[in-house]
Amino acid sequence: MQRGTGTFKPRASLKRSKILHMALMGTSDPSGEAEASQEKPFVLRALQIALVVSLYWVTSISMVFLNKYLLDSPSLRLDTPIFVTFYQCLVTVLLCKGLSSLATCCPGTVDFPTLHLDLKVARSILPLSVVFIGMITFNNLCLKYVGVAFYNVGRSLTTVFNVLLSYLLLKQTTSFYALLACSVIIGGFWLGVDQEGAEGTLSWTGTLFGVLASLCVSLNAIYTKKVLPAVDGSIWRLTFYNNANACVLFLPLLLVLGELRALFTFPQLGSAHFWGMMTLGGLFGFAIGYVTGLQIKFTSPLTHNVSGTAKACAQTVLAVLYYEEAKSFLWWTSNMMVLGGSSAYTWVRGQEMKKTQEEPHPRENEKNNMEV
What we know:
Layout: H1 16-25, H2 42-72, H3 81-105, H4 119-145, H5 148-154, H6 158-170, H7 176-198, H8 204-227, H9 235-256, H10 259-264, H11 272-298, H12 301-322, H13 329-358, H14 362-371
GO biological process, one term: negative regulation of Notch signaling pathway
Membrane topology: Multi-pass membrane protein
Family: Belongs to the TPT transporter family. SLC35E subfamily.
């Protein structure tokens, strides 16, 4: 049977339900994926992957410990979490603009898009910026009130919120095994809260901020997918506009919460060490976006999730050793439940996605049968 001829029309923009599904379920648009690069020697590729994963671990863990120092150090005694977050956003904006100018002045030096502040684009990014502010602010507030060792458990409900939002917004059901993995995460979270309370170190305020941070992380994934077309799909342009909006929106919060007044009376305001640590925190905040993308590029989104889970485990152990804390068996069990449940969910979703990709589309089967 002769096939009909015709021209292919450009693919229409993604529907809202498709965008939400991609964001919540962790899938990507197949047509947007780059073609596979030429096969490299195994040893070289293994070394590249090891280097990229190590860079991600070092950057992420260092950023958490540094932020804990800035937010809750007894020696620093700086009670301005919103200002710390604002300054890190400001550093990111300046770095993006600096790299953009360098790429313009010296072509070939760095590969960075040209950035010009367009108020129309900034307004279209505003919904994401509000969620972004909530995400980074609640993250830092959680870290301020809880220990680094408990930080991972306190923010462990992101996967659960992904499943919940996928059902509420998309009416997308989740498989039994994925739900079972989520129940393990929830069980680990509650056991961790119980054990923190038993040891007298539980902060309900910090735990609430951790839950809100988890919710904002899920919402951030949704809104990121929705607003990417406004910046031509450029993650760096989105980072620039997102942080620029955040800087403006943080200003009234600094005034209302009295953090500017507290900052002016801060004894170490003129200390080079203080501003050096603040700037270093901003550099880590900028770098984590780059190394995260790099790890996904050299491995895969699923491997990135597994690496993040393993990093969280190493971070917890390092925190317990560094702060010389004594934790009970049940406390460690709660952490293992959270990490194990997260890993299990990642594996289950990976298998489901692989099965979906391997199954032939019903229309394709029907078309093939007609052509035989």
